[in-house]
Specification:
190 residues; 6 helices; 28% helix; 29% strand; globular
Length: 190
């Protein structure tokens, strides 16, 4: 599975990508927002990830910028089966590329691929202290279910509250506890 978006090339990871993958994701600020990525993240971790088998209906892709020069690895996005066997969206973006819309762009393409393969009822989640990920999910049309559950973060080596989302109409920002916490932490203009 491959996809092109206006700014990205999404493709499966190859063993030749191991060094770039290790460099892009070996950032505690990135790893702390992911449940299955250790911190530090080394070349062995990247090679083990790239050697995982691919499910024929579930895209798991690396995201590269489409520039005039050589493409740069900036993140990854895919659908995996969660502990309950339900399809779940996951994504990460290297810190230099945060806030530029790449997560939304990559996830939109991956969701379209999954749906074209007959995958439905996709879920997603984000750690409560990562409201930016909630913004991405709402832009993609996911809605907060009202459920919060602890999930283990390998990068933090700790259980972390995780907000659960499902496909559907995007809820209001105020429905998301992380957004309320985020909003309450903003300075008040005088």
């Amino acid at each position: 599975m491959f996809a092109r978006t206006p700014r990205l090339l999404l493709r499966p990871g190859w063993m030749e990508d191991a060094q770039a993958l290790a460099m892009a994701i070996d950032d505690t600020a990135v790893a702390r927002n992911l449940s299955r990525v250790p911190s530090p993240y080394g070349l062995d971790d990247a090679e083990a990830f790239l050697a995982l088998p691919h499910h024929p209906q579930l895209p798991r892709l690396l995201a590269f910028t489409r520039t005039q020069g050589a493409p740069r690895l900036i993140g990854g996005c895919g659908i995996h089966l969660n502990e309950d066997g339900a399809p779940e969206l996951g994504y990460w973006i290297a810190r230099p590329y945060w806030g530029l819309g790449f997560a939304t762009e990559a996830a939109r393409a991956v969701l379209a691929m999954a749906r074209a393969n007959g995958v439905t009822d996709i879920r997603a989640c984000h750690f409560a202290d990562n409201p930016a990920s909630g913004n991405v999910l709402r832009k993609l049309g996911f809605r907060f279910t009202g459920r919060v559950e602890p999930r283990y973060s390998l990068g933090r080596d700790a259980m972390v509250d995780c907000l659960l989302f499902e496909e559907g109409e995007a809820g209001r920002m105020n429905d998301d506890p992380a957004m309320m916490l985020y909003r309450d932490a903003l300075p008040v203009a005088a």
